Every structure is written in structure tokens, then in C-alpha cells.
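Could you join me in thinking about how sequence relates to backbone shape in a protein? We need material for that, and I hope you will provide a protein of your own picking. Once you have written the record down, we can walk along the chain together:

…
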Amino acid sequence: MREEDVVLKLKEAFGDKVSDFKTAPRRVFFYTPPEYYKEVVKFLVEKLGFVHIQAITSIDLGKELEVMPHLGRGLTVSVRTRVPKDKPVMDSIVDLIPGASVHEREAHDMLGVEFKGNLNLKRILLPEDWPEGVYPLRRESQVAPPKPIRGGGE
């Protein structure tokens, strides 16, 4: 499937629910609001065969958190969506792609995104005793930089 075919099929299926398309060789990027996110991912998985999740990247944009799963099938489709930082709740896609669980757990740990439907949002990168509500990849995070070990490695 070519990049242009993916864009065309998404526009036909979702109209103005998908926007901001960008393509590059073997890449398609686009945006969908969080209320359509799961429906769009389901279409990509079930109708277009994008069943492999490569990663989910997340970033703090200030007032919003952007979440972007990257789905693969010969080319990579990246679905951008944004949730308010003060209420970072969105649908999980683990029922569509079970491998998404580990990536959603990472976004939960590092940025505080809550994925409705993922029953396994336990810690994955941070220690169990990490303070609740402190997310190291948020802009306001005051996580101290690591201190050098004296006498080590010299």
C-alpha cells in the first residue's frame, strides 16, 4: 500500500475527523481528535492491516500532551492526538493491539496519560516508590539531574 492510498482511505472513511496529513517515503502522519482516536486506530488495524505497533511517542506541548502511536505494515502510519494536560485521559488501544500495553504504560509513567481500558498501567520505567503525580517528562518536572559517583570510573 502506498502513502497516498492510506491518506485517501482515511479521508474517505473519516472526512474532517482526520487532518494535517504529511507524507514522506514510507511514512504517513496525521491528526485526529481524542474522541475519534480509537475508531481511527481500529480502522487502520482492521481495514488496512496496520497490526504492528512500533512505538507510542508522547510529548508535553505545554497545555496539552500529544500521544502518537506508530503503526507499521511496510510503511509507518503515525496517528497524532492531543489531550488536555490537566485531564490527560484517552482511550486505550490494547484491545486492538495487545502490544500497545507496554507503550501506554511508558506514557503513563513518564507523562501521566491515563488510558481508559488498559487495566495494566502499573509502573514500567520508574521505581514503585516514585511519588504519585510526578512525571519526569513534563515540562514543569523538577527531577534532579543525576549526581556523579565520586571515585568511580577514574
The helical segments are 3-14, 34-46, 100-111. The CA atoms of residues 44 and 101 lie 18 Å apart. The longest helix spans residues 34-46. The first strand starts at residue 19 and ends at 24.
